[in-house]
Design brief:
By secondary structure, this protein is of the alpha/beta class. About 20% of the residues lie in helices and about 25% in strands. The chain is globular, with a radius of gyration of 17 Å. Bound molecules: zinc ion (3 copies). The site of one zinc ion has 6 residues, from α1.
């Protein structure tokens, strides 16, 4: 099983248009520090699934017939915007797995095109796709939102964005058998008061409580990147900062 973190930025991305902060300037000068919208690619046993769909060149990167399905975390525009032209494509339909959010985003449900929206998933009820088991985990966000725990014979990876903290039922799933990797929303610097996203203090506390997992920060905002430039030693040994196109393999 392999998870590629296609994008690791929050809704603003880095560099943020018009921003002259050190993190945005660095990202303009060295593309390895740039962050695009947060999404990921899961590969297992010769098949690939997307987690969220926001890549600007989605159609070129994933030609028709190459994607077994899309897992939607939630229907905020920065996570689903590639669906809006993808839906008018030709070729085989693409199963879309998602939380129960009757509103969805704009008119996607009314005009789904080739998107085959599956019955909404339920938290903690596993979906079996060949040998891959996927457990939806409820998260704390302003819209119904799922993280996903991917379980293959080689091990487990949790992908948890967007969220503030982790609800108890979801936390219990992680405790039961700690994943090798936990990829988690960490949008803001420590002590930032955002209701719907973790700050660095939130994540360090969680990572401390699950020390056998390797925690990777994603959905990162430019202010957190600036903080990390100023405080390079602020992370614990089991926490690291993800970058775009980083691969996690089991
Ligand atoms: Zn900036
Ligand atoms: Zn969101
Ligand atoms: Zn988001």
């Amino acid at each position: 099983m392999k998870l590629t973190l296609i994008g690791t930025g929050n809704v603003q991305g880095c560099p943020l248009y018009g921003c002259e902060c050190p993190a945005c300037q660095r990202a303009r000068e060295q593309s390895k520090y740039a962050r695009t919208l947060c999404s990921a690619l899961l590969e297992d046993n010769g098949k690939q699934w997307l987690i969220d769909a926001n890549h600007p060149h989605w159609d070129r990167r994933f030609p028709a017939g190459t994607v077994a399905g899309i897992f939607i975390t939630h229907y905020h525009m920065d996570h689903v915007q590639a669906l809006f032209n993808l839906r008018w494509g030709l070729g085989p339909s693409i199963p879309v797995y998602h939380p129960d959010d009757p509103k969805g985003c704009d008119d996607l449900f009314k005009h789904p095109g080739i998107l085959d929206f599956q019955p909404p998933l339920k938290a903690n009820q596993a979906l079996q796709l060949a040998r891959l088991q996927v457990i939806p985990l409820a998260l704390n966000h302003s819209k119904p939102c799922f993280g996903y725990l991917f379980c293959s014979p080689q091990g487990r990876i949790a992908y948890l964005t967007d969220t503030k903290g982790i609800p108890d039922d979801s936390w219990q799933q992680l405790l039961r058998q700690p994943p090798k990797y936990v990829v988690i929303d960490c949008s803001n610097p420590p002590l930032a008061k955002a209701k719907n996203h973790n700050n660095l203090s939130d994540v360090l506390e969680l990572a401390h409580a699950l020390p056998d997992s390797q925690w990777l920060l994603t959905h990162i905002g430019h202010e957190l990147d600036e903080y990390l430039m100023e405080h390079p030693d602020c992370l614990s040994p089991n926490v690291s900062v993800a970058h775009d196109e980083q691969c996690l393999s089991l």
